[in-house]
Amino acid sequence: MSDKTIGQCNFPVNAITELADKEVTPVYIYDQKRIENRCEVFMNMPNAFGILPRFAMKANSSRALLQLITSKGLGIDASSLNEVRRAHLAGIPYSKILLTTQEAPTGSDLEDLVVMIKNGLKYNVCSLTQLKNIAPRINECTNKFGIRIHPGVGSGESATRNTGDKYSCFGIHLTDLPKALSFAKDNGVIFNLVHVHIGSGGDPAVWKENIDRELGFIYDYFPDAETVNFGGGFKEARMPGDTAADVEALGNYAKEKIIEFQAKTDRKLKMEVEPGTYIVANSGYLVTKVADIKQTGADGFTFLVLNGGMEVNSRPLLYGSQHPFYIVTPEGEVVFDQFKQYDESSLKELIVVGRCCESGDSYTLDDNHTIITRDMKMPSIGDYFIVGGAGAYCSSMTPFNYNSHQQIAEYLLTNDGKLKLIRSRQKMEQIVVNELSL
Ligand SMILES: *Cc1c(COP(=O)(O)O)cnc(C)c1O
Which of 83, 155, 235, 317 could form a disulfide with 206 if both were Cys (CB 3.0 to 4.6 A apart)? Predict the structure, then answer.
């Protein structure tokens, strides 16, 4: 057994080569130790009067990971009614879950929602329609809800991840707040939690401004608020040169501001945060194989064709995201490690693509969706090609049946160094099970 490691998190190479006789690639491997470490960072986040970090489960909804993360003390931030159902199926009680959704449940979904709230689910009202749907039902569950405010400004690494500016519609916009407040008052609804989430991967300075702004909202409009929820968007450093959010510094800032708020109002606000990316991003490794190597002529490029691309990780295609790469031979020799320095002359300019019939199915794209090259060592066909930083918004967000590929398997690398299967590979029959013949 090799004791080699790759990357900034020292992921053991033998966990990759061990897969060879277990399952066909591609597969995801998640590092339990890393996830637990990230959970602890948030459980220990500085705070004034208590903190509850809630894992944003849309980042990774795998049952075993939800169980692991909640066992460390975190709650759940769910983005849909089905996410609540899924977390509950994983054994997580409703009382640990906050629902913040764009959906406006009606019919049987509304009936389910009322029962879930009655059993402890915290419902974060995100629109006037949602408020009007739930208000007539308060006698059956509770009259205390959260409210998500659209602050009019946002943050995020790209337009599609900014959730706070006028080009997105998450939450009740400040201009609609008077309507929401008067409706709530007339109908006996109380907002005891106030929530703002401004976007993913955001800038710490903007995050700090959000703390100030949100406490201002509570001061001005929410006399019954007991909890302030600052949302997620804590940046993780995936690539060399990236800097992760300083959770401790942000916690200290929030703590100071919540204490100032108490001095002014005599109210002790509890704090909640909703990290998704930060908890799981760097715990995840997508293990693929180099299936083919092709050229496109004298003035063209050299392409590595992997056996898993956009259908297992669509972040590069959606966002132009850069992930660290590693190349390992079937025997466990590390050919390339994104976090090691190499003599430039030994590196080649390569393009990395997947196996889908889609020219954008590439891991080397820039922000404008243009194919670019990345410098790395030349692999051989059959080598493992590992994509790091693949724990968040990869498995949970992929169009996995595109080109009729199967959803891939997932393993947890446990604290005792064993690979535990946490999701089987989808069977071919499962792709077509709901289809009917002509
Ligand atoms: C997506 C989301 C999060 C998590 O964002 P990250 O960037 O993954 O930390 C938190 N809260 C809400 C409401 C979200 O929609």
Answer: 155
